[in-house]
Amino acid sequence: MEMDKSTTLGKVFDSYRFFTTTTWTSSKDAAGRRMVEAVGTLNFANLNERDIAIALGRANNIPSEEAATDQIALAQARKMLAGIQKRFKTAQLVFQFIVNLDDTFELKGAKVNAVASNNKTGSMHLDGEQPQQNLKDIYDGHFPVFFIVFLLMAGD
Q: Could you read off the pLDDT of 145-155 as tens digits, one per residue?
């Protein structure tokens, strides 16, 4: 996975406008490898219908400028956002990394944790290309498409 080498993963997470907080923990696994877990807590107040419209547009290969100005897409995104804000208190993206001896890292896995308005909690492990795509979205400053889908599905 090729990332922007002009910045660190820590700076990217800590400056990501959709996170209210980020926490980092380090540990060793059973094989003695150094593991790092990064948890970003989402701030739904910083999310707007334009962000959702752009994310959904990206999923459908629609240019960001077009998705951000399409009135129908914005109206749908506004409705989605209202539903997400009504159903959820908070949510987190959790990434686990293996730190190599040369200080490079590998993405080991990712999951989503969510707390609903009724205080029920849910968690889902990401598989396939989802962890890498979510990490790329964070690097690019975008709200992850998968996360919108997860929140909409989890709210049903």
A: 887 777 777 65
124 CB-near residues (< 8 Å, 6+ apart): 111, 112, 150, 154
Q: Which residues of the chain have pLDDT under 70?
A: 1-3, 154-156
CA 55 vs CA 21, 25, 28, 40, 140: distances in Å: 22, 29, 35, 18, 12
* CA dist., res. 142 & res. 137, Å (int): 5
CA distance 113 to 110: 10
Three-state SS for 130?
A: helix
Cross-strand bridge partners of residue 42: 19
Tens digit of each residue's pLDDT (9 = 90 or more) over 24-37: 999 998 989 999 99
* Whole-structure pTM value: 0.84
